[in-house]
């Protein structure tokens, strides 16, 4: 299990970090971020459907989910995921990567709150301590690294709340024994249509006046349809692979652990940005990094202890049943 999670994480990190820098660069040169996101949704759906079709031709038919179950479980995931991704990409138009990371760090608080509300996690003092360490550490790590933009900050905080709902409900659905969407490919295929519902009115409301044939297919002021389609397709492929790796991590861990993996990614992204831009880390930034890593280490140790205690309980239970049968 540990090796499997490590391998999935090795897939997740380069995809996620690469997509962050790719989208930041692309959105700076292409002023329709919500339209780009909707293109990614369509491409992810097509990738998932095509792979499922090939799988069904070679192996066995995949599971189908009824409309009732989709509306009950998958619609909230899709709508919140769309709001999360759309608002995050929109926020990158207003804020730097550092400020985005600082504000998005609050998502772990939302995930813990919703996990407790849905009874996916039990309250423990250690859980509150770990969460506080990580959130405070990441905040200090990015403190004064960029100027405050209220519009961008509000967008990121709304995205963080959507993140909390998205991953806790996804964990609830994918980790159920009777779930029809335990496989990440099935999850992506069924969720993408619901993700289109909130993004379409947002595009019409905020970008509708700017959308025309010339603006859609122009990049850096030059009309080049093939380049625009290629760049959006490249981002869509990265997004598809990253979403598959996220769901793989979620199936094997939890929403909180997945968010911690995401925070490790954000810290690595910021360190890489500091190295590329030759920025210096202050003592306060380094102190925040230490707090953040300490919280992650404590969370990992507590998760390991819980797994060991559960395995011991299961072993004792099996031994007692065997003794009764003898």
Key terms:
globular, mainly alpha, two-stranded antiparallel ribbon, TPT_transporter, Sugar_P_trans_dom, 1% strand, transmembrane helix, 326 residues, membrane
Concise account of the structure shown:
With 326 residues, the protein is mainly α.
**Helix segment tally:** 12
Q: What Rg is obtained from the alpha carbons, in whole angstroms? A: 21 Å
Question: Which percent range describes the beta-strand content?
Answer: under 5%
Q: Tell me roughly what share of residues is in helical segments.
A: over 70%
Please describe the biggest sheet, giving its number of strands, its sense, and whether it closes into a barrel. 2 strands, antiparallel
Shape: globular
Structural class comes to mainly alpha
Number of strands: 2
End-to-end CA span: 32 Å
Strands in their spatial order, largest beta sheet: 1-2
Please, what is the average pLDDT? Answer: 78
Unreliable stretches covering 5 or more consecutive residues: none
Q: Can you write the helix and strand succession as a string?
A: HHHHHHHHHEEHHH
General description of the model:
The protein has 326 residues and is mainly α. 80% of the residues lie in helices and 1% in strands. It contains twelve helices and two strands; from the N terminus they run αααααααααββααα. The chain has helices spanning 2-29, 33-58, 67-91, 97-104, 107-117, 125-141, 150-174, 184-206, 213-216, 225-252, 255-277, 283-325; strands at residues 218-219, 222-223. Strands 1-2 form a two-stranded antiparallel sheet. Strand 1 (218-219) and strand 2 form a beta hairpin. Helix 2 (33-58) crosses helix 3 (67-91). The longest helix has 43 residues, at 283-325. 40% of the residues are buried.
